[in-house]
Each structure stands twice: as C-alpha cells, then as structure tokens.
Design a protein that fits this description.
Helix content is 84%, strand content 0%. With 92 residues, the protein is mostly helical. The N and C termini lie far apart (47 Å).
Length: 92
C-alpha cells in the first residue's frame, strides 16, 4: 500500500481510519447512553433497547473488513433513508 499512496498518503489514511473509529465509538456510546436514560426515566418500550443493541452490533460489524463495512454501511443507509425503519425503537 505504501507504494500506491506514498508516505504522506499512508499517514493520512491512518489518521482517517483512526478518526472513523473514534467517531464510531462516540456515536455508539451516545446510542447506549440515550437508551439507558430512556429506561432509567421509566420508559418501557422494548423496541428502544432492541434497536440500540442492533445499532451497536452493526457498528461492530463495520470493523470486520470490507464485507462487514458494506453490510454495516447498507444497514445505516437504510436506517437513515427510512427514518429509523419507520420509527422503530425511536425514543419519544
């Protein structure tokens, strides 16, 4: 890879991958915290926990190489395009 990108390109790719991983961890933490607060505040809809858990799992799948990234990206694109799969697991 170093031959194709050069030293600078390889460094930039490494930084970009690190930023992407940090963002994934941050967003996953926010998802878990929001679901936890929902239940802490007395929420009882099981779909909130199921959707949050599925989001966490699909984030992890994104780190399993190119195929995992494709599966995870497809999930999150569909999630976004359908308004959270029609509002499934939405915190109201």
């Amino acid at each position: 890879m170093n031959n194709a990108l050069g030293k600078t390109g390889t460094k930039i790719l490494g930084v970009t991958k690190g930023l992407g991983a940090a963002a994934a961890v941050g967003v996953t933490g926010i998802t878990v915290a929001r679901a936890g607060m929902y239940y802490y505040d007395g929420g009882g809809d099981a779909s909130v926990g199921i959707k949050a858990g599925l989001d966490v799992v699909m984030t992890g799948v994104g780190f399993l190489g190119p195929v995992g990234f494709g599966v995870s990206a497809t999930y999150f694109i569909l999630d976004s395009a359908t308004g959270g799969f029609g509002g499934y697991g939405a915190i109201k």
